[in-house]
Design goal:
Layout: H1 7-14, E1 19-21, H2 27-40, E2 43-47, H3 54-80, H4 85-89, E3 96-97, E4 107-108, H5 119-122, H6 125-135, E5 139-150, E6 160-163, E7 169-173, E8 215-220, E9 231-232, E10 258-259, E11 267-271, E12 276-277, E13 287-297, H7 320-324, H8 331-334, H9 347-371
Helix pairs in contact: 2-6
Bound molecules: fe (ii) ion.
């Protein structure tokens, strides 16, 4: 990849123009600046977007890690013991929810359930207005997950792999040169499920069209310290391909890579097509508390496939009660997950179509008038 050698991109990176301080920009200008950066380099960082309750969120994420582990293990145990669907749904202290599809079995509750304090941040209009400006007025959050990791200075000499629950080879540990380059769904050629039909959620055919189909947001609740931010290849979102191919050493450092600078309170925003890698834990003592959310426009199907998956993180459901306990600002983006609610196309789109219809009527009226002259 030689894209970062493009002078303009290089300047954006070296002068740190990819970092926008939320406090220094009017919201009306900020959305254009973010859009430009996403188009040009494929990512940006918005500093100081998250309010000052960072420690509260970090504590919540730590608790969420323990609670989701307990919940997932309990669910696995009940499935192994062949509990009925009814018994699983009623099992005490197990948080599973009915799918919005009546012919599908229940899944683990959406991860926002464990992040009630943080949920205000995710629905913050200062943030969601930017997402909507870039994608469309009607958007959905396809996946949410929090991560809490603390590296303990272990120094492995090589990159260590392990197959995940879906059979995909994942880097679980490594040294400072270890990476795990990839593009995100729907531009992920492994499609989560790989060769497993029942877990495969689909992937976009290469070369990828030059169109933003999704944005990934990483809310940083702690300073990443030595570990640093996401590794990226600036401009790679325009390459049309993913690094998950035999032609690339997707586990090694790339010549044109760059590690994004983030701090507690920043939000890293990225086009799903961008080549990126999370920093691989190993040699540092850093703490990392993040929430990853994946945003898609109304027209992209998110959960039509892998209908029998019980554990993937895609479109995990919410009950009506969960939904109604969410902050009002966040509800529109998660409404599609609730099987007791119906989702209409949102008011902004209805308004847009009304206006278009009005224009078409006006045009016809003029045409008629010309013909009758
Ligand atoms: Fe990713």
């Amino acid at each position: 990849m030689k894209l970062v050698r493009n002078k303009k991109l290089k300047k954006i990176i070296s002068s740190e123009k990819y970092i926008l301080d939320y406090r220094k920009h009017k919201s009306s200008d900020l959305k254009f600046k973010v859009q430009n950066l996403i188009n040009q380099i494929g990512f940006c960082v918005i500093d100081n977007l998250i309010d000052r309750k960072l420690n509260i969120y970090v504590e919540e994420i730590k608790k969420a890690k323990k609670r989701t582990k307990f919940n997932t293990e309990l669910f696995k145990k009940l499935l192994d013991k062949k509990f009925s669907e009814k018994d699983i749904l009623n099992y005490p202290n197990l948080e599973v929810r009915k799918s919005k599809f009546s012919n599908r079995k229940c899944k683990l509750v959406n991860d926002i359930f464990w992040l009630q304090k943080f949920s205000n941040q995710l629905g913050n209009k200062n943030f969601t207005n930017i997402i909507k400006f870039i994608l469309d007025d009607h958007v959905r959050i396809g996946q949410i997950h929090s991560r809490y990791t603390k590296a303990e200075g272990i120094k492995p000499s090589k990159t260590i792999f392990k197959n995940d629950d879906f059979g995909l080879p994942r880097v679980i540990s490594g040294n400072k040169n270890s990476r795990e380059w990839h593009t995100d769904w729907p531009h992920d050629p492994w499609a989560y499920g790989g060769g497993k039909k029942s877990e495969n959620i689909g992937c976009i055919k290469e070369p990828f069209p030059d169109l933003i189909m999704g944005l990934v947001a990483v809310h940083h609740l702690s300073d990443p310290g030595e570990l640093g931010g996401t590794w990226v290849v600036p401009g790679s979102h325009k390459s049309g391909i993913s690094p998950r191919h035999k032609n690339f050493s997707y586990i090694k450092a790339f010549k044109d890579e760059f590690q994004v600078k983030v701090k507690a309170g920043s939000v890293y925003l990225q086009d799903t097509r961008l080549w990126h890698s999370a920093p691989v834990l190993g040699e540092t003592f850093s703490e990392r508390a993040i929430v990853v959310s994946r945003w898609y426009p109304w027209w992209l199907q998110i959960d039509d496939y892998a209908p029998s998956s019980r554990f993937n993180i895609v479109a995990r459901p919410l009950s009506k009660r969960d939904f109604e306990s969410l902050p009002k600002n966040l509800r529109p983006y998660l409404l599609y997950l609730c099987n007791e609610k119906n989702e209409n196309i949102n008011d902004a789109l209805v308004k847009r179509t009304k206006l278009n219809l009005k224009k078409s009527f006006k045009f016809l009226k003029n045409e008629n008038h010309k013909q009758n002259k």
